[in-house]
Design goal:
By secondary structure, the protein is α+β, with helices and mostly antiparallel strands. The protein is 30% helix and 26% strand. It is built from 2 helices and 4 strands; from the N terminus they run βαββαβ. The protein has helices at 14-29, 65-78; strands at residues 2-7, 35-42, 55-61, 93-97. A 4-stranded antiparallel β-sheet has the order 2-3-1-4, with helices on one face. The longest helix is centred in the N-terminal third of the chain and has 16 residues, at 14-29. It is globular. The termini are close together.
């Protein structure tokens, strides 16, 4: 299974967002049982295209994807994960994808 997370930084705060994601958030997520690995991507859009999201993170999951999502919510809500206001949380979209 894969967890895909599409996101954006708040306007003008991409550097801060990327530093937090790479140095804090990604390592935090990798401590969750069932999260095997993760990688981040930045959109490469043709000149005329305006993408909805500038960033994508893809996580390889073992086992129960719903349990992983529940643990992310628990740790985020409890303060166990350090969050940042440089993330434009209104634009975040995520989904678990299964191999066919």
């Amino acid at each position: 299974m894969k967890l895909l997370v599409f996101s954006n930084a708040r306007d003008g705060r991409d550097d801060e967002y990327n530093e937090w994601y790479n140095k804090v958030h990604l390592p935090d997520l990798l401590t969750i049982p069932g999260v095997r690995s993760g990688a981040r991507y930045r959109v490469h859009a043709p000149d005329a295209a305006v993408p909805e999201h500038r960033y994508l993170a893809i996580y390889d999951l073992d086992g129960d994807g719903d349990a992983v999502l529940k643990e992310i919510a628990t740790r985020s809500g409890s303060g166990q994960f350090q969050l940042t206001d440089s993330l434009d949380s209104r634009t975040v979209k995520l989904a678990i994808w299964e191999a066919m």
